[in-house]
Predict the structure.
Amino acid sequence: MILPVMKLGTLVLKTVCKPIANKLKKEAGRHPKFRQLIVNLAQANHRITTNVQRRIYGHATDVEIRPLNEEKAVQAASDLIGELFVFSVCSYPKFSITI
């Protein structure tokens, strides 16, 4: 009985958090210092992801990785921030129940 209720509660929480995450994504690129921070975050994420993919596929990892342009970096970082927000809010009740 508790499992369907918990799943329904998590879905409701996720639905409520989506508009907040979308607002975060919109506002992420507006402030200049925060914009630079998220661009750096996106570039680091891009380098790590590309290196991991190159290792998985057996390609050389000592090549220079072209950075994302600023707009793509802002979009990637704001998507990451939005998804992390939803994940953290939705996973908090699951972990707090087990503690």
User: Anything to note?
Assistant: The two ends are 20 Å apart (CA to CA). The chain has one domain: 2-98. The chain has three helices and no strands. The helical segments are 2-28, 32-56, 70-98.
